[in-house]
Amino acid sequence: MKMTRRITFIISFFFCCCIAKAQPKQTIKGNVVDKESKTPLIGVIITVVDMNQDNGAVTDVNGNFILKNIPVGKHTITISHIGYESSTRSDVLVTSAREVVLPIELEESAVKMQAVVVSDRREHINDMAIVSTKTFDVQETERYAGSRADPARMASNFAGVQGSDDSRNDIIIRGNSPQGVLWRLGGVDIPNPNHFAIPGTTGGPVSMLNDKTLANSDFYTGAFPAEYGDAIAGVFDLNMRNGNNSRYEYTAQFGFLGTELAAEGPISTKNGSSFLFTYRYSTLKIFEGLNIKIGTSSVPAYQDATFKINLPLSKRSDLSFFGIGGLSNVDIILSDKKPTSELYGESDRDQYFTSNTGVIGTSYNHTINDKTFTKLTIAETGNDIFAHHNYIFRDKVTELTDSLKNILGYRYITTSTVAHCYLNKKITAKQTIKFGLINNYYHLNLVDSSRQYPVTQQVWQHRQDFMGSTDLLQAYLQYKYRPGDHTTLTAGLHAQYLSHSRSKALEPRIGLRKNLKSGDVFTAGYGLHSQMQPLYLYFQHLPQYPASLMQNYSMDFTRSHQVVLGYEHTFSKTLGIKIETYYQYLFNIPIETRQGSSYSALDQGTGYNRDFPDTLTNSGTGYNYGLELTLEKKFSNNYYFLFTASLYDSKAKGNDGVYRNTDYNSHYAFNALAGYERKLSRNGTLITGIKITYAGGRLYSPPNITASNATSDLVVIDSLRNTLKFPDYFRTDIKLGARFNSKKVTHELGLDLLNIFGTQNILSLEYSSIKASNNDPYPFFTQYQLGFLPIFYYRIDFAAGTKK
């Protein structure tokens, strides 16, 4: 806490020294297009409504606008055009270092009349989205306490999303496995975008995504539109922004989570081309030097980079190139010390782990005419994951290392060529149709061998030895009908086919949104959704059989019926409430053919271990149902707050025919967030925030002591799966920060105080080989989550070059 007081003092001192003579001003610019056809709109009126003097602009023939001499701070902007539904952008942050670039899409009014004003309406990026959708505002990753500038951790604040694992950012939606989440970037499906990624998971301890390169995106928690397939839990559809095309802007940031550099600017000011680039490197060495516990005694190292190049080819088309890549490795060496708890691995072995992931692609957009738009995106994705484990045999008396034994080694290399092409046609102001094709061609090289169960075994057990390919083909058709400005109906079909297993699915989707004159909104949606299994599971084989005999090669898709009903009410321009209830029935779930087994694939998808079940069959079922509440006050008058509550039940049935709690059935989760910003001078702002999370405790199973000792690993009593519960999860995070604007430079200091009360939340029950060797009748220990963790950063933004 001494360090916390010192950093707080530095922030205060920093502002006392920053006395500005004049308030800096900045430019807001952007482009306005029709939402369906992407045609530039001429004559759109853009106004900054919270300034004392009139300040507005009108779009030119290319849909561009410029607002000059806007004072630094937060502003509200309205966009209006005859024949289109007007919208409001609140909480637009203006700083002295960076120009604000706003890409805006307006939806044509279904009723031809004067402009229809929808005050402070928060548009979804995908206009086919009706229910269970939240627009992800990139500012929220830094504004919300405890988010660590991570989109996945930010999403855990949303209703229906449970985030009570300090060691990982897994997105657990409505009791579903995080394995059921689809990540999409720039229109194409991407692999797990996290450092230290484990096969079969979609989360990790540190995100590769950089919020400095992201634009506002959509996050779906159920019954999502037809263009999204191969997912049964949710979708995170991310968009990258373009770099500034008129001047060069730079960012340098230093903090506990890494050192970052970012640059953007014009390639050619004549045609409006631009670039955007970021790089981050971290070893977390600074935590070790300050004796701050991060859950591991080792020092993880990671680096990542992101880029986007945008090249306008004409007024109607443009070409872009984008990419994201990350390298991460950690050597968890425990043999040189006495037994210690290890949050990110196993405490009975030395572990060497490397995870590298990359995405590179190109996208071509073309507006055919004022009603038709097409887009083609092609990308190459890949990840390379390597692990090597040495088991530690210790002296019973001294507990020092006696010998090491190589017990596990695997390497998974997966690449994918992805293509997504769609055509969007606005038939009339009331009707829009969208058709698309998606193809994912996977090439795999998977090798795995183990002799860890039990660790006395001398013969290697080969579980994977496959090199080959498979193809996932998807097609979709979506239709939107708006009989009036207050009613929207969407309907669609999604189809997918997996080549090696010959699995196929045809899935209907439908949604309805009804705006009443009172301001109330009712929504309803239904969807049938399917998802293939983690690829490595198809190509595993039992150790006693040859590699060519893969027992789960022909597994089918997991499927899910989802029904959602919602109600929204707006109390004011910035305050609203939303309630949703849902039911999800899951079927075709892989379960073991072994009689009496409680195994269900719905329990997999998190942690740092892969799953190797016995022979599987698609005959399992499960269900989720629940109620969600969101009360949100958007940022205005210098403060905001967000309260979300989720009540739910999640069950799955294995081969024993018994419906049990899934691993993710914590039954309830509550989040309360609030923030306040206060101007300390004309150019300085104090930033504060708090987050309180309360969730049901994690479920666990009674251990089978005899079987655990025989395998030197935790083995549970299968018939009592998830019948026990750890104490409830509670955590409080606080954010302190300060922003100062000089003429062309913006400084920002930030401090996130995670788990400020140091609450000891339990993560899991683990097997202890030391206790077992000493004949302890209960050879297990409790693994706790992170304690108090301060995260500090300093960022400087500055600009160079001339404006248009």
Structure description:
With 804 residues, the chain is mainly beta. Strand 18 and strand 19 (258-268) form a beta hairpin. The longest helix is centred in the first third of the chain and has 15 residues, at 2-16. Residues 113-123 have low confidence and may be disordered.
Q: Unreliable stretches, pLDDT < 50, 5 or more residues?
A: 113-123
The beta-strand count equals: 44
Quote the average pLDDT.
90
Based on Cα principal axes, name the global outline: globular
Helix content: under 10%
Q: In DSSP terms, counting alpha (H) and pi (I) runs of 4 or more, how many helices? A: 7
What percentage of the residues does DSSP assign to strands (E)? over 45%
Largest sheet: 22 strands, antiparallel, barrel
Briefly note the structural class of the backbone: mainly beta
Distance between the termini: 49 Å
Radius of gyration: 27 Å
List the helices and strands and how they pair.
Elements: H1 2-16, E1 25-34, E2 45-48, E3 56-58, E4 64-71, E5 73-80, E6 85-94, E7 100-106, E8 116-117, E9 133-136, H2 140-143, H3 151-155, E10 161-162, E11 172-173, E12 181-185, E13 188-189, E14 194-195, E15 206-207, E16 214-220, E17 234-240, E18 248-255, E19 258-268, E20 273-282, H4 285-289, E21 301-312, E22 317-332, E23 349-369, E24 372-394, E25 401-426, E26 431-450, E27 461-484, E28 487-498, E29 503-515, E30 521-531, H5 535-538, E31 558-570, E32 575-592, E33 616-636, E34 639-653, E35 659-661, E36 668-679, E37 684-695, E38 699-700, H6 705-711, E39 724-725, E40 729-741, E41 745-754, E42 762-767, H7 769-773, E43 780-784, E44 789-800
Parallel strand pairs: 1-7, 6-8, 12-17
Antiparallel strand pairs: 1-4, 2-3, 2-5, 5-6, 9-16, 10-11, 12-13, 14-15, 16-17, 18-19, 18-44, 19-20, 20-21, 21-22, 22-23, 23-24, 24-25, 25-26, 26-27, 27-28, 28-29, 29-30, 30-31, 31-32, 32-33, 33-34, 34-35, 34-36, 36-37, 37-40, 38-39, 40-41, 41-44, 42-43
